[in-house]
Design goal:
By secondary structure, the protein is α/β, with parallel strands linked by helices. The strands form two sheets. It has a five-stranded parallel β-sheet. Strand 7, helix 7 and strand 8 form a beta-alpha-beta unit. The longest helix has 16 residues. The chain is globular.
Amino acid sequence: MDIQHGIIDVHAHVIPGVDDGSRVMRESVSLLKRAAEQGIVGVIATPHYSRRHVLTGLKERAARVQEAIRETYPDFFVYPGQETFYHNELTDRLRSGEACTMAGSRYVLVEFDPSVPYQELFQGIRKLLGSGYRPILAHMERYACLRNAGTGELLSCGCKLQMNYDSLQGSWLSRETRWCRKQVETGVIHLLGTDMHRMNYRPPQITESMKWLQSHVSPDYLDRLTRRNALHIINQENIR
C-alpha cells in the first residue's frame, strides 16, 4: 500500500533521542513497524520544539528514520514536522526556521498548556493565522476550556483540529470517551494522530478506534480524517 491509499499519521514522536519520544533508532523502527501492521503507511514526525535547544537537521533526521523503516516496509514515508508549544515568539521562530512547520507546508502543529484560558488560546491561534501560518491544534481534547467555549470560533477563523486515536477508545460509559466521539460525529475534527512516543509509553494503537470510526462515520469523512487531509498537508494544499 502506498502513501496515496493508506493511513497517514500526523503526530508521531519517532525521531530518536531528541525529546520524550523514541530513544534510539531501533525503538523508532519498532514503533513504525507496529504502526505499519495497523495500516499506517506514512508519518509526519513531530518532535517537540524547545526554545532552550533548537533541533537542527530535522529533514535529514527524518530521512534516516525513513531509510531504517524501509528495510522492512519499502514504501513507508517519514516527513519532517514539529509539535510546537505556543509562546509569543513562536511566529518569529517559525520564520527563522528554528521551529518547523508540517512537511514544509504552512501548517503548524501547535499545543498549549491544557489549562490555558480560552481567550489566550484563541489569541495565539489568531496570531499564527495573522502571520500566514495555518494552525493545527494538537490533541484538542486536552483543553478544558473547549468543553465550555466550544470549537465554533476556532473553526470559523481557519484553525484545524487534531485528535489522538486513543481518545476514541474505551467504554461509552466514560464521559471523556463520549465527548471525544461526539466531536468526531459532529464533524469538527480534521485529523487524527497516534501521538506515539515509546514502545512502553503510548505506542501506536489504532485498531479499536478504527473499528468505532468505521461504524459511526461516513467512508468519506473517515478517509479525510485518516488520509486525505494529511495528504493535503504533504502536498501543500488547503484542508477544506
